[in-house]
Specification:
Largest interface: A-B, 40 and 40 residues
Strand order of the largest sheet of chain A: 2-1-3-4-9-8-7-5-6
Number of strands of chain A: 9
Order of helices and strands of chain A: EHHHEHEHEHEEEEEHH
Helix content of chain A: 25-40%
Oligomer: homotetramer
Largest sheet of chain A: 9 strands, mixed
CATH class of one domain in chain A: Alpha Beta
Structural class of chain A: alpha/beta
Number of helices of chain A: 8
Radius of gyration of chain A: 20 Å
CATH superfamily of one domain in chain A: Class I glutamine amidotransferase (GATase) domain
Chain lengths: ~250, ~250, ~250, ~250
């Protein structure tokens, strides 16, 4: 079983009728619902206004893959929690940042760059898959048309992705590296651009497929207790001494 | 002219006779001396115990490439200064981290990872060039033997380098990605492993060649004032309106 | 099930008593034996001296992952067969090149480079894993000591690997990118350096683990019938016409 | 001085009035003219219908950077010449493939992949620069609008570029990795998508800037005589013997 925690800011869906109409139970529960069809996944949710943002040490330390959606209240996430998330990724936890989470504290901490971009509401996106052999692209068509989506445009100020899987085309004239993967520490990080709160993007089956694949891809080989910086003895010196003794 | 600032912790060379014998004027002045042979470079130095660590806003904002050597007192560099350095790299400044600067605050901030490794004093290193077509490898031989150098061994916990230029071999049995390059923001970052304070590594002509090349490589195309995240209008909508009007 | 075909030159093991002692049934059958412990794999073998090198169209077109070991008789493999292998990789088939297969025709065709290197028999290798989060590194220790192995040394003249997973250390002073992965067409290619015919390298459990993992990693999402270069109509023009009609 | 040879198929411009109107002296001379403004460049041209395709051994062996434009007559270039070009790139020569040269023999030989794509005449392109710190992007704006250009769309079946510098947006709905760089052998390869024969793309100052930058970037550190695969002695064994003798 892969232990997945879906974190959501969960403010828009309670405060804005338009958003509530699209995600009545919140974006996190929409994601939980479609992920739950995969029997290998064990899924919890956590939100900003819960105690400890819903991410107690117990929850975090039993999470294999953390999915993050945030937008207007990135600053409400305590720095101490951000550091714990960062450390857990270093030790192996997968991290999937969705849409406006490009500016979330954990993602920026991991990227070590500004994560800036261009933006505009209410565009139309064509999402092109350029690496169909990737795990995240399995059973995903070469193009997904998203009728209404917030435009995010280049330059996306992130480190060069280790793998660029999707490029977005927007009707207003922009392009975007919409699906990017990085190795970070012992963990894996995936950023996926579609998913504005007022658009029903997470109801699209192909998007659900991508995110389900991403969870499997981000599931770690193992999670270390800590990352050390050890002094180590020479291994060859012992061999040399043996050689010397034997002559 | 490329404005280079060589930053050095400059404690070992004042406190330890063995180190002072190797670098009587400090590592920074040794580096300044060999870089000065390149007439395109305009070189300043800065050290930990100067006011503002020698890096006033004026100095930092007129630096194109910052070279950094630090070891035992990384924590003495104020977080506020680290953030200024980070921001300047985002805007285009080059950053070259030397040896134990793998654990310096600016480098860790830029990498977004632990930068851990294995280590052991007093090994012998063979530095292999695996990308001889790179600017940093120009006129550099395929192998440089460093008679005594501190071993740094894998796993080096950094993001996958955009370019891996040198791999180190150590007599004790380890390997290391000893010369790594990354694009970060509008800037370029180079990490170079050799250069322990008690070894005369920076006196080796081939090492000097590598670092001189690295300064040219890291010199930015331009330096931006800031990195914005702007709303932008659709460019195509205007074209569509024109098309509609013309029919 | 993943259909794996293990191809072997199979001359050394029949002509050289020393090699026969190490691999009495041939390298291909040694590999087949350890892969057979994985119930998801369906394994066949093929050798140079069989009809069509054992790779009829039927065999090739039902192969998901092709493993290749060759050394002294690369030139005996017909160019026509090489082109069929290349085309099948373009369409998705995985290809795993072992040791001296760095100079095999299919590998050189896929790399588009000379694949040259330095070499020397009878060295000792330490194989370091630098990307433990990779599928191929799952359950593999950070270091594998191979008591006797042929040295392959840098510069390894291959395109920059998409993923560098293992670096080899040799007692004679060299390093090597010993485990490299590339995306090629719709297929995935893995090169693994250890495995000289007179050394019992493929009997080492950790090496067996790596190759078993590599088969799973190289197993394609899908295999296409052919790679086309099609003219496509504008999708947006139709939308524009609809917009114009509706106004 | 950098010795540049601009190769052109030079058939369209002689056979098609529309193309002749755009490039009266041929695409090669248009490129030669704007490159000639750079005093560091020494420029020759060569065309398909000259003897040896204009690329005698003397010409090829004194070329530092070869620029290639071809379209309908790729098959007229002899395989023997292709192999010579390939070998020279392995030894260090830069190679810049323009537009429909994606299907040229030398480019396909170097890529080791099909280089297929989608296409459609007469679209409008927005070329976005996503790596402004790259040498090829120096003094290039973040967006270049090309009023009429042939659409090339993903999936572009090339190996993952070592550096992705430009992404093209097309009004018909497609995206393309329009500016890609690879290290190949000791040489550097750049592919640039804009430049259909009937469009005045090479008259656009920003495009001229990109190609001039690309020549400098592709200029090799050095050109080797050949790429060998040598046996080498152990360097450490001698050191070990000395150690043994001295004890």
């Amino acid at each position: 079983m892969i232990n997945v925690t879906v974190w959501n800011e969960f403010r828009h869906e309670r405060e804005d009728e338009e958003v509530k109409a699209v995600y009545p139970q919140g974006i996190h529960n929409c994601i939980k619902d479609f992920l739950s069809k995969d029997e290998e996944l064990n899924i919890r949710t956590a939100t900003l206004d819960e105690e400890n943002c819903g991410l107690s040490d117990d929850v975090l330390n039993s999470t294999d893959v953390l999915i993050w959606w945030g937008h207007c209240h990135h600053d409400k996430v305590p720095d101490e929690l951000v550091e714990k998330i960062y450390n857990r990724v270093m030790c192996g936890m997968g991290f999937i940042a969705l849409h406006s989470a490009h500016f979330s504290k954990p993602f920026k901490r991991l990227m070590g760059s500004t994560c800036s971009l261009k933006w505009r509401d209410g565009d139309r996106e064509r999402l092109w898959c350029i690496l169909p052999s990737h795990e995240i692209a399995k059973d995903v068509p070469e193009q997904i048309v998203i009728p209404v989506e917030e435009m995010y445009g280049e330059r996306f100020d992130v480190p060069t992705p280790d793998e660029l899987i999707f490029i977005g085309w927007f009707s207003g004239g922009e392009v975007f590296r919409s699906g990017c993967a990085w190795n970070k520490g012992l963990g894996r990080v995936f950023y996926f651009q579609p998913g504005h709160e007022s658009n029903p993007t997470y109801h699209i089956p192909e998007v659900q497929k991508i995110l389900t694949n991403a969870v499997h891809w981000a599931n770690p080989n193992f999670i270390a207790d800590e990352i050390e910086c050890p002094w180590v003895p020479s291994q060859e010196e012992e061999l040399l001494k043996e050689t010397l003794r034997s002559r």
